[in-house]
Amino acid sequence: MSYSRFLEDTPLIPGMMRLLDHTDLCQPARLADWIHRRLNEGLTVFDHADIYGDGECERVFGEALMASPELRQKVQVISKAGIVPAHRDSSPWTTKHYRAEADYFSEAIDKSLSRLRVDQIHTFLIHRPDPLLDAESLANALEQAVSAGKIQHIGVSNFLPEQWRWLQKNTRLPLVCNQSELSLSHTGALFDGTHEAHLNDGLRWLAWSPLAGGALPSSVPESLLKAAREETGLCETGLAIAWLRQIPGAPIPVLGSMRDSRIEAALEGTRTVLPRPLWFALLEAMRQTAVP
Asked: Which residues contact 46 (CB under 8 A, 6 or more apart)?
């Protein structure tokens, strides 16, 4: 057994992708207050990417850290790079594409540091596997960023096992995590060996879209939800998170919602162990098929 110890004390990670949707939080002082509330709940890690709001989410977050400077010593930031949306492509082709290139990543790290107003990014991820990846040169750039103190850890996002293993083979640094989709509505990785590859290779699974895309209430019979609520005291959000955290290796949910009530419900789920039959009953309901 080689479960990852990366972020082992982190129950869930607030994701900043929808920050700009919360106009009330886009004022530095108000966002700083929101971050303080998360810290009081024991949540210190915040998930970003350079494409979230075309960099605006990082910039707004950085302004909040400047408005309350003591936060800079308390928060840990994850960020990602490597995706160029079509509207950001300056070439004649205006095509969404990937750029897992050494120079591009070196510049992306510097830009994220500048927008976030931090001296170091806790973990920097390759956002998507790039079929044109030159693993050796990219690994060298990431190693240089770690040596310079710009980032502390490196990881990947949306990678399959052989994709992260090829990158790992070309760097002396450990890949600490893979941020990939996992939820009650996205369970294929639990049955095709991908989950076990995470455990075997020591990568912590950071699970994006952990609330089943909001599909849990409509897909699970009300009678099962009612019985589950009576048994556990959890709402649908808590049930989805408890189900996820019970998977060996304790995948860490990256929660897209920034609402206090949703975060509180998710945290309650991280503190609850579901009865094994209930865990499988929820799985069967979402898959709409019996366990083989």
From this structure: 13, 14, 15, 16, 35, 38, 61, 75, 76, 77, 78
In a domain, residue 194? The reply is yes
Does residue 218 have a pLDDT over 90?
no
Q: Which residue out of 3, 52, 98, 104 is catalytically annotated?
A: 52
Of the pLDDT bands very low, low, confident and very high (cuts 50, 70, 90), residue 217 is confident
State how beta strands 45-47 and 76-81 pair: parallel
Tell me whether residue 171 is in a domain: yes
Number of domains comprising the chain: 1
Active site residue 98: no
1 has pLDDT over 70? no
Q: Give the model's confidence band at 2: pLDDT under 50 very low, under 70 low, under 90 confident, else very high.
A: low
CATH number for the domain spanning 172: value is: 3.20.20.100
